[in-house]
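Need C-alpha cells for this chain, all 136 residues.
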Amino acid sequence: MSGEDIVPGFAAGPIRVLLRTEGLVLFVVALALYEKVYPDWWLFLYLILVPDVSMFGYLAGPRFGALCYNTAHSTIGPLITAGFGLMTGWALLTGIGLIWAAHVGIDRALGYGLKYPTAFRDTHLGRIGRLTEKPA
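Here are the C-alpha cells for all 136 residues:
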C-alpha cells in the first residue's frame, strides 16, 4: 500500500470534542504561563502567527506541505523549546516556546488539526473549509 492509497481518518463525535477542548486548555495554560514567565505582549503579537509560515511548504506539493505544517504545529517543538528555556533560565526562549504552544492550542481548538499528505484541508480533526462537491 503506497502513501497515495491512504484514506485519511478523522476524529469525530466526543473524541473530536475532547481533542479540541484539549487544544483550548493548551492555549489557556500557555497564556497563563507566558504571563508569569515573560509577559511581553508585543512579542506575543509579533510571534503568534509565525508557525503558519510553514504553510508555504504547500507550494512544493501536499506531501511536503503537510510535513512542514505538522512539524510546526506539533506540540513537540514548543515543549522542547519552553522546557530548554526553563532548564537554562532563559526566559525569552521559554516565552517563545509558550507562544508557539499557544498557537498550536488555539489552532486545535478552532479545528485546525495536523495535516494528511492528501490535501491541506484533510486534518486529523476533520476536513476544513467548504466542500466543493456534494457528498455521495
